[in-house]
Amino acid sequence: MPRAPAQVAGRAVEVVSQLLQRLAGSLRLPAAHNRIRCMELILAVLRGLPGDVELDEESAKTAVKHLQEHLNDKDAKARELAVVALCKLVTIQEDVPVAEHAPFKAIIDLLEVETNKEVRAAVVSRLPLDGSSLPLLLARGGGDDTALVGQQLYLRLRQDLALASPEEDEGQVGSGRVAASPQMRRELLWTGLQEGRLEVRKAAQELLGKWFVEDAAGDVTRLVAALGPQESPELCDLVLDQLAQLQHWQPQAWLQAAADAADPGASPRALAAAAVPAAAASAIPAALTPARAYVWLHACRQVDQLVRSSGQAAATRMAASAAQAEASAGAQAEAALDAFLPSAADMAQLCLRVAQAGPAHRYVASVLLQLSALPAFNWVDAASRAVAVEVLQQLIAAPAVSMMADETSGSNGSGNGRLPPLGCGGGGHWEDAVLTLATAVLGGGGSGGGALVEACLPLILSLAEQLSVNQETADTEAPEGAMLQVLGYLRLLMVRAGASVSPAASAPLPPGIYAAGTGNEAAAGTDQAGGGPGDGDGDQGEEEEEEEEEEEVERRISLEQAVRKLAGHAGRHASPAVRAAAVRCHVVLALRDGGLERALPAALSVMAPLLPLPGARDSRNSSGGASAAQSRKEAEWQQLPRRAAVQGLVDLSLLWGEPVVTAALRRAVAAAAGAAQVAAVTERMAAVGVMAVDGVDGGAATAMAPTEEGAQPAVPPPQAAVGVVQILLQLTEGLVRKLQGYDDYAEAAGPAADALLGCARLAAQWGSQQRLAAYSRQHQARGAGFSATAAELAELLLVRLQLARVSPALEQQPQLLAVVHMALGSVRELAAQPNAGGAAYRQLLAAAFLPAARCAMALPPPPGAAATAKCAAPELMEGMARELGAASAAAADAAAAQLPDIDEDAEDENEAEDDDVGSRPDGGVRQQPHQHSQRQQRLAEVAAAAAQLGKMVLEELALVAIERDEAAGAGSEADASQGGGGSKRAGTSRRRRSPLDTHGDKAAQAYTEELCKLPSLLLPAPVLMAVGGDDLAALGFLGRRAVRFAETELRPDKVVTEAALRKLRDLVEDVENTRQERAGSAALTEEDAAPLLEALLARLAVLPSQAQVTAEVEADETWDLTSGSGGDQAQQPAGSSRRSGGGSGSRATKSTSTAATGRATRATRSKAAATGGRTRRNDLRPVREDDDEEDEDDGDEGGDAASAGDDSSDDGDAVDVVRKRGKAAEAAAGSKARGAAAAKPSSSQTSAAAPAGERRSSRAAAAKAAEKMQVLKDNDKVAARLVRLSQGEAR
């Protein structure tokens, strides 16, 4: 009798559970193919089970346990199958988030460390989604660099991710779909629709198509509303363009359908034709949302562009039928626009009506104002222009509309249609939209800029008069909102008018302003605008004649006078936002044609007190940094004027040139210091009753203005401390060096971020400024006075950018870091050009290499570096070397491609010469063609920067090894002088390069090891073949020298690895082979290399020392936004800028601890010099003397007779080295008896007082010394001769 169905089902479940348990137990088989086969069987069983079947709980737990263990299986296929099986086997509990399930948590962790793309794709395509797992999946899988993973991610989101959240639209989220937050939607679409990989972009387009067709039901307005046009207008444009490209939405058809609709809010024409209700708020239908208005604007722009392109195509088509088709398409698009849009006058009235409807409709009004600027509107008609001018008067000059406040709480929320004006906390979008209409009606950006100023400047002055903003109230009495509104309009007007409109452009004064007392200044003309003396000393008759002429001639005011009238005294306003707006007005005025003579000095005089200059302080914040209780928001608010000054300084430097702005800034600072000195003297004289001030006698002045005891008059700062580059480096110093009193770097925000952006802009535009300066020198015309930034200052800017990209301060600022990388990428692209500009950028990269590498030793390893990394220097050095090598190779290839004819001509000449080689008088030796020499010279110029840096790197490596040997020798001689009465050498101090502590500093050791690897990166095969003969000879000599010292001084103590040393040997061998193949390139001798070594040492001597690199910079809380609170720290006055820490601009005078460290370092160096630790070995250690004095011995009793006549020559130094080492070895026994502490023994000396277990035997030391002497004899004739002299002296 057959069994019941329930019994059969139960038995089947039991069998399947036991099978799964057996298969899971077999996963421990050692063979990978057995494990993979078991997992495939498990998946086959799970896929065949019905959805309502529940497995045995114990068997399921056992299978899950075994599968989870194999998430770390060594075979990628096994890990992939384990992920798929776990996602099908684990049951999701409704009350437990997915990210809290142990198996799913393990899968998410696997995604972060997995290297196989198939495994990562399996995770992103099968991991269950909910509110906890979706953010983790997007964070760890969204930025995957593999196309397969990105494609699977978007395909998975297309299936399980909904457009709107339940709070926004409850009907759109079905069962099994997760709601996307607004930020997720924006990030997914913005990243996916711009993806360069075709597979990922298509998957993102499929996600967009499903959201539009299913979630938004084909309503484009609904889709745009979900994305937020106010928050992300660029994304909305991208989405609408993609929908049109995918044929989901046609703008022209959509406009035609909206024009034919009966809804009064479907189109602007229907809205303008509708009856206007009595209440202004009810004049706008509810259907007119921000999303609908934005779709109007985008669709009209697309159709208008179609009209213009069709007209141009019809005019250029040769075939009549094609021209007729293009003209017909353009006519249809124009007809759709005409049916959708009202007339120009009605459009202007509609904009005013929507603006008057209230703050909730201001964003819609701004979109309509932008829509009014389309070329489809005819503003040439006089009637339409008159209506538009009346509308502009209401929008600008009427405070009820221009300053309409929003009393509703939360007015700045997303998607609410509110767009506050500048005076009510807005960002200037409303004012820009109003001036967009004014530009369309009146013209701008060229010949129409004067007309725009003529019409709008009186409106701004009228608004200022109604808001009580004038020259008398701008400093303290005027409200903050009114000042911001007026100054914002004034700045945007100058921007809209264009740079061709000079500061002298004028407009008529509104009626009544002259009666208020401000018209006299405006009518005075340009002389009074510059601050010159008035005409009050003239005759009374002349004044009467001038008044009569003013009655007849229309009174006018220029832009320069308007800025001085409205913003001239705003620098003393209590609001930081007002002071910042005033600075921006002065800067924009100085950026126009003709602003160099007067507007630039005036702007810099306003900005100088806000910049971090010695003796210059903000007039409103002279007390220094923020208090500990001050909130971060308040600190950022107080920094607005400083940020405006820094941004304006960069803008002015880009237009007029950094040297011109620096010179003007120095004059402004000196003038301000002189005025402060005069004011201080006047105040003191008035205080003691010597003179009266402002009509007050001396005694009254004393009572009114008491002076502080000990107050010193202002002293102008040093000229070297004042400069655009110096200020930028000073502000960014805390981003690459630790702050005193803090455990971290300065935060990359506020003025520091602005200064870093300024460094990036100046460095990226340096090449174009060089070309403009060269052009201005050749053509004595407009811009003849332009000069570019000096190469030395550009080098400092590039050093700062290179350090910033590996600094921890920028890890939390991805946008700022992206700008830095973009600027450096621009520099690399420019350096790859085979022209003079590319050569200048390659020289810049080469000059900035070693200073940046030195300073990077103080920075921690960047994220993703090896666990054994000690600092950021190796990664930075490798990256910079690869960039310069790649740029040089690209330039060499491009230069070779530009000279193909030279090779062909040379080959033809060689073939012609082969016929009569034997008859030539030179015995058959073919002379190198002249064209080939020109080609090689051209390529050598391209590779000159890489070759020069290669020489410096090789010499740096050799000197590091020499200094390591000298440091050990100095310790031995110090011990010998204490124990055995050895000779004390007190020669004159020599200026040497900054030594590195390669004995105990791990960062210095990493830096040294990286030096061995760099030449091969700097000189790849294309660059090495392009290097000139002289550079090849120098590289070969320096390479052999560096290898010799690295083998004897660095490798025995494991400062460098054998692999790094092998790379250096291979490079030297390649250089020698290339030199030998090159005709006419001889090896460089040591006598000929002496000038080269001296020149290299002079350049290496200015590198920042290790003490300077590791020194902390004093925090200036007035400018820095630090992560911790340090308001109790005392503020130090800013010191003069100097070249330190990779750039000029040490932000403040060093603290007591830093100064003490410097004194101790100098004392140690002096002691080492006194004991003879600065001696050098023959000409292999070139020393640059500070003076012409000769080194002399002290003449102690234990000294040698020969040492009395030491004249610091090469022979004398070599003899002295050998003699001193012999004395150190003889003094070892006495030092041992006293048990004195000694330094760690190196490969070139024997420590005198080291422990017995670490001390080398005398036999081993003698053998090592003999080996070194033999090497010198074999490789160096001069050194062998000096060794023989020293041995003869010893005998």
From TrEMBL:
Signal peptide: none annotated. GO terms for biological process: mitotic chromosome condensation. Residues 536-552, 905-916, 1185-1199 have a biased composition (Acidic residues). Residues 518-555, 614-637, 905-939, 970-1000, 1120-1266 are annotated as: Disordered. One of its GO terms (cellular component) is condensin complex. Residues 518-527, 926-939, 1146-1173, 1225-1252 have a biased composition (Low complexity). Residues 621-630, 1120-1133 have a biased composition (Polar residues). PANTHER family: CONDENSIN COMPLEX SUBUNIT 3 (PTHR14418:SF5), CONDENSIN COMPLEX SUBUNIT 3-RELATED (PTHR14418). This is Nuclear condensin complex subunit 3 C-terminal domain-containing protein. It comes from Chlamydomonas reinhardtii.
